[in-house]
Design a protein that fits this description.
374 residues; metal ion binding; hexosyltransferase activity; transferase
Length: 374
């Protein structure tokens, strides 16, 4: 059968074998040539990168960057807006920001991917540029005898709080004449808000949410971008800057930052609007340091005030007053940033652990009974 087919094509068996041999060899050589061409192109690209890398190294000095910037500027201006289509135009290289080492000894991210701010997890210089046109409002309540803490509070704030940024200190007090006069940096001011007092310190604490929400609607929305809400019986002892700013932030309570949720002193009575079951909870947040954008703080404080009003109508008062309602709110409305206990600490009651590299905002020693008495 094979001989018949060859005879039909006019080929002898030997001629057919020769044709098949050279055909296969031709295919093999063709494959080798194509492979060689591919390898040649690859290595030519690799070697072409070597001078470019050497050039980049030689231009890494500030002087080289300056000259290169002038050259790039000149090239674009001489072209009258038309780029040579036969070459890739030079563009300034992107300068990557300095990378900070991630802390491995502490929690730096919440389960919902919000950053936890510790020393060593942010670059102040970059953030200062990002927030350079931002105005920060700080609310503090100095009711009754608590006005005695104002001088130290404001003096240390001027030294450590949002240095280089515009700040408005909103001082809520029933004693405007006792607010001390201190020297302020440029772009910073103290605004005294005259408010009434209450018989019990618990009432003062709970009505703080109401007053912040009212003034947020009346004036804070027009005057500042962010609000930071703090206790007055404290002092700043290290840098507290724009690294804390976020749409909504809370601070880990120094007494519970390393505890499990079963130990948290949430409100456990179901009748209260602040109620949190024992199998729920992320962190225990401190009532003395929270904040965010003005609209978010308004929503938080309004919700807490309404919840406390509802509790009062039922004849119930949450175990830790406004702090209990703050924790209930932040459980349902996750903060976009969480501050470590560096931002609120009590050196008299707690021993400082090695993981706290800095103490930024600390309690001032005081006689609570005397201060709260009247």
């Amino acid at each position: 059968m094979a001989v018949k087919m060859l005879s039909q094509q006019g080929l002898t068996p030997q001629e057919w074998m020769d044709r098949d041999f050279w055909g296969n060899r031709t295919k093999s050589w063709l494959c080798l040539i194509l492979l060689f061409a591919v390898l040649l192109g690859f290595y030519s690209n690799v070697f072409s990168l070597i001078p470019r890398r050497q050039t980049e190294k030689s231009q890494s000095s500030p002087e080289a960057h300056h000259v290169q910037g002038q050259r790039e500027s000149l090239t674009l201006s001489e072209g009258d807006g038309h780029l040579d289509t036969c070459r890739i135009p030079e563009v300034p290289r992107y300068c990557r920001p300095r990378l900070w080492a991630v802390r491995v000894d502490v929690l730096v991210m919440t389960p919902w991917f919000a950053p936890v701010v510790w020393d060593g997890t942010f670059d102040s210089a970059l953030l200062d540029v990002q927030f350079r046109n931002t105005t920060i409002g700080l609310t503090v309540f100095a009711i009754k005898k608590y006005v005695v803490f104002l001088r130290l509070f404001l003096e240390t704030a001027e030294k450590y709080f949002m240095v280089g940024h515009k700040v408005i200190y909103y001082v809520f007090t029933d004693r405007p004449a006792d607010v001390p006069q201190i020297a302020l940096q440029d772009g910073r001011q103290v605004v005294v808000l005259h408010v009434g007092n209450y018989r019990r310190w618990q009432d003062i604490s709970m009505h703080r949410m109401e007053m912040i929400s009212n003034f947020s609607r009346q004036r804070f929305l027009r005057e500042v971008d962010y609000l930071v809400c703090l206790y007055v019986d404290m002092k700043f002892s290290d840098h507290v800057g724009v690294e804390i700013l976020a749409p909504l932030f809370g601070t880990l309570h120094p007494g519970f930052y390393a505890a499990d949720r079963q130990s948290f002193t949430y409100e456990r009575r179901p009748l209260s609007r602040a109620y949190i079951p024992r199998d729920e909870g992320d962190f225990y947040y401190a009532g003395g340091f929270f904040g965010g954008s003005v609209p978010e703080v308004y929503r938080l404080t309004m919700a807490c005030h309404q919840a406390m009003t509802a509790d009062q109508a039922q004849g119930i008062e949450a175990v830790w007053h406004d702090e209990s309602h703050l924790n209930r709110y932040l459980l349902s409305h996750k903060p976009s940033k969480v501050l470590s206990p560096e931002y609120l600490w009590d050196e008299q009651m707690l021993q400082r652990p090695p993981l706290l590299r800095k103490l930024r905002y600390v309690a001032v020693p005081m006689n609570h009974t005397e201060i709260r008495s009247r």
